[in-house]
Amino acid sequence: MFFTRSLIDKEKLNQFSSLSIGIGVLIALLGILVLLNPIVGAISFVIFTGIAFLLNGLLQAFMTFKAHDKSLGAWFKVVIVLITGVVLLLYPISGVAAMALLFSVYFFVDAFASFSMALDLKPLKGWGMALFNGILSFLLGVMMLVGWPATSLILVGIVVGVSFLFDGFVLIYLGILAKKGHYN
To answer: Cβ contacts of residue 16 below 8 Å, gap of 6+?
Structure first.
């Protein structure tokens, strides 16, 4: 087992609990904002992703220049990452459509994994939750593809908003549990 209760530092756990609740509230609020305007949320997500790719490409370019300046192969990844960032920033709506396709692939793979887990667990307790998760993921994958690309702006925004909202709730919940001493 990688994690045990005996390795948890009580002082760090106390710091974690407050930080977890605070960050959880911010992420949940961001999720609510995205859900209130999923189109702006989807475009913002793609722009943020484009900026991240661009910064990543610039940092990799610096490192490649320092370590492998004469290696054409080392520059290939740098160029691809930079082009991806620039394209996402110049064409964010097309980027949202591309994200919808990526999300659909993710949901189909997740559905397959969940169905496999459900079959492995059956008849043990909890196998139905794995099956339910698989069905939900499959339906989300289908939803992403059915109206693609026309529905991409709304669906990507909703998926990102719901994800942020639930990530925030989990952080808040874990922070509250930590404050109540459940991890001591």
So the answer is: 175, 178
| 98 CB-near residues (< 8 Å, 6+ apart) | none
Write out the E strands in the chain: none
Which residues are CB-contacts of 65 (< 8 A; sequence separation ≥ 6)? Answer: none
CA–CA separation, 157 and 151 (whole Å)? 10
Distance of alpha carbon 95 from alpha carbon 1, whole angstroms: 40
Amino acid 8: pLDDT: 58
Mean pLDDT (the chain) is 88
Amino acid at 84: T
Q: Which two tokens stand for residue 104?
A: 């659909």
| Torsion of the alpha carbons at 105, 24, 54 and 86, rounded to the nearest 10 | 60
Low-confidence ranges of the chain (pLDDT < 70): 1-10, 13, 182-184
Q: How far is residue 118's CA from residue 139's CA, in Å, rounded to a whole number? A: 17
pLDDT of residue 3: 47
Q: Are 8 and 183 in contact (CB under 8 A)?
A: yes
